[in-house]
Amino acid sequence: MVRPIKLYSLKVGSIPYVLGIIKCAVFPMLMILLITSCSSLPRNPVPGDRMDEAVLAGLPEVRAYWGTDISPLFQQDIIQSVRDEPGDLFPRRADGSSIYSGLAISGGGAQGAFGAGILCGWTDVGTRPVFKLVTGISTGALIAPYVFAGKAYDAKLRAGYTTVSTKDIAKIKSLLPFGKESLADSSPLAARIAKAVDETMLADIAAAHARGQRLYLGTTNLDAQRFVVWNMGAIAASGYPDAPTLFRKVMLASASIPAAFPPVYIDVAVDGQTYDEMHVDGGVITQVFFYEFMLNMKEAAKMVGRTDMGSNRPQVYVIRNGKVNPEPQQIPRKVLPIAKRAVSTMIKSASLNDLIRIYQFAERDNIDFNYAGIPDDFSFESKEVFDPKEMNALFEIGYQKVRDGDLWQKAPIE
Question: Half-sphere exposure (CA, 13 Å, Cβ side) for 343?
């Protein structure tokens, strides 16, 4: 087993993109004091000492924890994916080996419109690659399946990020947390996912998986305090009766901001006994991820006799649906603005750490790194969380930057 260099510490507790589902724009830290005094709702969690043993009934090989060791399960799967590739799917080197491109899409809530604009513009320019590996977190987990299913889904991707408002994503509950697990109801988002991820889309994702492409989404198992990577193509291709439901649950879980949205409960088994796992936004642990702690791509290539990367290096494209550079602002001496600023600063720092981590792994593995984030001069002015006007503006920025050839940076900080 190859152990990759540990380049950062997982940021358990860092909150994903700060939703303003409530008017104060953050699920306030002071609510924690209230929530801890409330009785909890009933559930059937996995015993603490058995969490590593929990498996999905009927689908035991579609997920793994992301840590500091290579996953044998995912390593074997990526080796098989190379064997499954048809000869004309990816560009080829002189020796016949494939030239790969990968895509990692971050969280960012409504700011995912920026990434959607990039992807649609990329198609229209005619240079968007066929990706070997696509990963997504949070809003990135809502975008990634459209990308993976193919360019024919661009119109739906565009509509999903330019025609929605907050009411299409969430229903606000009472701001008092007593007897509840969230401040908002995510059923509108769940309904949108169910409508979008239909049998046709699942079949297209399964077909891409069979061609050797891979789609990975990330959630946070709150019980275990661990990041879970899901092999979504394997789920779609499994033929398991509950596969469509599980696929949609993973997408919803990855976008379920703790306390703002309810967790998503996924049934698992330990020694034949059924339990539930509590899954929330993958951004609790990482804002964007690629293959770093899951796979050894060089070893996979070696296993199928492809050891020479040649002068045409693989590429990784990272879309950060947000700004990374500091945004100076004078903060008043009030608890909610201080809490909001502290959380947003934590997210910004985590995002930069994640980009640096991917960049360093790309340098180690001789991969061409490309990164895009929302321009520093874009001004967020809307008080609505999902504002169609602002989302359209972000979409157009991403779209136009691709068309102008003024998008990709070669390092997280330049």
Answer: 22
Alpha helices in 304-405 (DSSP H): 335-364, 388-404
In tens, the pLDDT along 156-190 reads: 999 999 999 999 999 887 655 555 788 899 999 99
Give the bridge partners for 289, in sequence order: none
Q: Helix 154-162 to helix 112-125 angle, to the nearest 10 degrees? A: 150
Residue 297: name the closest of 145, 6, 102 by CA.
Answer: 102
What is the distance between the alpha carbons of residues 202 and 198, in angstroms, rounded to a whole number?
Answer: 6
Helix (H, G, I), strand (E, B) or coil at 135: strand
Task: Give this prediction's pTM.
Answer: 0.89
Q: What are the percentages of helix, strand and coil residues in the chain, rounded to 5?
A: 40, 15, 45
Half-sphere exposure of 5 (CA within 13 A, CB side): 9
CB 213 within 8 Å of CB 131: yes
Q: Which helix (H) or strand (E) holds 123?
A: helix 112-125
Dihedral through CA 242, CA 160, CA 121, CA 18, nearest 10? -100
Burial class (CB in 10 A: 0-12, 13-18, 19+), 148: buried
* Closest of 19, 1, 8, 21 to residue 111, by C-alpha: 19
Q: Which residues pair with 276 in a beta bridge?
A: 45, 267
Residue 242 burial by CB count (10 A; 0-12/13-18/19+): exposed, middle or buried? middle
**Which runs of E-coded beta strand occur in 37-82?**
63-65
One-letter amino acid for residue 148 of the chain: F
Residue 259 Ramachandran class (φ > 0 left, ψ -120 to 50 alpha, else beta): left
* 274 C-beta neighbours (distance < 10 Å), count: 11
278-309 pLDDT per residue, tens: 999 999 999 999 998 888 877 777 777 665 54
Strand boundaries in 31-132, DSSP class E: 63-65, 101-105
- Contact indicator for 100, 366 with CB cutoff of 8 Å: no
